[in-house]
Design goal:
By secondary structure, this protein is mainly β. It is built from 1 helix and 25 strands. The strands form 7 sheets. It has an 8-stranded antiparallel sheet with strand order 6-5-12-3-14-17-18-19, with no helix packed on it. A 4-stranded antiparallel sheet has the order 4-7-8-9, with no helix packed on it. The longest helix has 9 residues, at 27-35. The model is unreliable at 1-12 and 17-22 (pLDDT under 50).
């Protein structure tokens, strides 16, 4: 929204927007426009991006450093005892990054039940180590890790907890696990947490388990959240000496509670890095998380090549967008002798537009669809997955037909196969399914056969549909070309996306412009190009198969 400023009192009237406020303005005008959210941001816009699974972050233009939180997966809780250690917790500011670079973001999974460590989480040069697994009856000491797992019951001396901050970082990424209850004890120690060590189980016959260590707080998202709590120790038996004491609670920050036999411990909370609770049987640790915070200028373009969560900056009210679904996989032939050429995969749906309303401070889940895999022998390719931003969904491309199992519908349809008798045809799949306006894609081409058994010269698979053109029909001995994709300049230069995959034949159909794959003969062709939504290519004869479709992409440009 724009407001007239200064009303001509100081020089000519000026227009103030959220991206421009040039000219001379009165203090009153500055106050009124800023209060209405119309004054441009001098320091740029703050962006928070959250990763709850492994993905890719493309550093936007103008960004040179980020604030970060990297939490690894928590360790699994041990059977008959120790709580799992929390995943390593590392946070900091001023980490140098390079605009235009794709950074792999690895989010570690939680360790499975038993003395199993969580997996590392990684961003750039920052690695947080998975939490150590809790001790078990077979491996009694807690494992080392970001935070150490708790030791199990019994032992003389008591079985030790694992060592935290392993390998060593500064500041420390975690703490040690607590020891088990010793020779007469039947209780496990707590897993270490990011803020404090796990508590040791009570010595002797009291059979009281140790609590998980507390996690650490982070306010990187704008509110305080606690991560990386240790798993509570468990109590394994009611037999003498002594009586069965209580299991212990997990540490704040997602640590799982311990269990008193016959109960199992509880799992660590997902995306906190909490350790799993020990018990009669332990439970899994929680997965980790990676969060980035950085500042961008007006009109910045964000490219998403993997699934993530994007927090809309305060003051941003609309975006331009490109959303491309994953391409469909090519069909696979079922008979090497009879030359049964298959259809190419359809391109992922292609949707683009301007001025889509967004709300500052809202977290938007961004899904980037994977390409569909090729069909198994004699079967159609699998559909690509949908890509989603806000209210915009682009449907994955339909799979190319293999055998006579049918071409898939989707953003663009897969091509029909040439696995038919003399004079027969096989239709391609329908594009723009479900229907949207403007259309997100096109139909796949028809396959044809003119002999049985077939040869390389008498059958042809149809090409997969593309964003701007239908897939070409197969001809005798010739595979249909994939339909052409559509160009977009949202990133600042024209790039073509969502080309259909080529159908197979004695002469292979070529992939459509925009990442579509060319078909193969008796070997598997190349896949559709990643992050274009291109369809996979068909194949003429075994032992080859069709190829996978290319993954999709989401690009947004803030308009303020």
């Amino acid at each position: 929204m724009r407001h007239r400023s200064n009303r001509g009192v100081i020089g000519p009237q000026q227009l103030v927007t959220t991206s421009s406020g040039s000219g001379i303005h009165s203090i009153l005008d500055h106050f009124l426009n800023k209060g209405a959210g119309n004054w441009p941001s001098a320091g740029g816009y703050t962006v928070v991006q959250t990763f709850t699974a492994t993905s890719t972050w493309t550093c936007p233009t103008g960004v040179t450093e980020v604030e970060y939180l990297v939490v690894a997966g928590g360790g699994g809780g041990g059977s008959n005892g120790g709580g799992g250690g929390a995943g390593g917790f590392r946070t900091g500011t001023g980490l140098a990054v390079t605009a235009g670079t794709d950074y792999t973001v690895t989010v570690g999974g939680g360790g499975s039940a038993g003395r199993n460590n969580g997996s590392d989480s990684v961003f750039s040069t920052i690695t947080s180590t998975g939490g150590g697994g809790g001790g078990t009856s077979a491996s009694q000491t807690g494992a080392n890790g970001g935070s150490g797992g708790g030791g199990t019951q019994g032992g003389s001396p008591a079985f030790a907890g694992g060592t935290g901050n392993t390998p060593s970082t500064s500041p420390s990424q975690g703490n040690n696990g607590g020891a088990g209850g010793g020779y007469y004890g039947q209780a496990g120690g707590g897993g270490g947490g990011a803020f404090s060590a796990g508590t040791a189980a009570a010595a002797g016959s009291n059979n009281i388990a140790g609590a998980g260590g507390a996690g650490a707080n982070s306010s990187i998202t704008g509110s305080s959240v606690t991560y990386a709590g240790g798993g509570g120790g468990g109590v394994s038996t009611t037999s003498a000496p002594g009586t069965q004491g209580p299991a212990a609670s997990g540490g704040s920050g997602g640590g799982g509670n311990g269990g008193a036999a016959p109960a199992a411990g509880t799992s660590g909370t997902a995306n906190t890095g909490g350790g799993g609770g020990g018990g009669a049987s332990g439970n899994a640790g929680g997965s980790g998380i990676v969060i980035l915070k950085y500042t961008v200028a007006s009109q910045t373009v964000f490219t998403f090549k993997g699934t993530t969560t994007w927090k809309c900056p305060a003051g941003v009210t609309s975006v331009d967008y490109l959303v491309v679904g994953g391409g469909g996989g090519g069909g696979s032939p079922g008979d090497g002798t009879n030359q049964n050429p298959t259809g190419g995969g359809g391109a992922g749906g292609f949707r683009t537009g301007t001025a889509l309303s967004v709300t500052g401070g809202t977290e938007y889940a961004i899904t980037v669809g994977a390409g569909g895999t090729a069909g198994t022998t004699g079967n159609s390719g699998n559909a690509g997955s949908n890509s989603v931003f806000s209210i915009i969904t682009s449907t994955g491309g339909g799979g190319g037909e293999g055998g006579v199992s049918g071409a898939g519908n989707g953003g663009s349809g897969g091509g029909g196969s040439g696995s038919v008798n003399s004079g027969g045809t096989r239709p391609g799949g329908s594009g723009n399914t479900p229907s949207v306006s403007p259309s997100q894609g096109s139909n796949g081409g028809t396959g044809i056969g003119a002999g049985n058994p077939g040869t390389a010269t008498d059958r042809g698979g149809g090409g997969g549909g593309g964003a701007s053109a239908v897939g070409a029909n197969g001809a005798l001995g010739i595979g249909g070309n994939g339909g052409a994709g559509t160009s977009s300049s949202i990133s600042g230069s024209p790039v073509t996306y969502a080309g259909g995959g080529g159908g197979a034949g004695g002469t292979a159909g070529t992939g459509g412009a925009g990442g579509g794959a060319t078909a193969g003969a008796s070997s598997t062709p190349s896949a559709g190009t990643v992050n274009t939504g291109g369809g996979g290519g068909g194949c003429r004869a075994t032992p080859g198969t069709g190829s996978a479709g290319g993954s999709g992409i989401v690009i947004i440009k803030i308009n303020q």
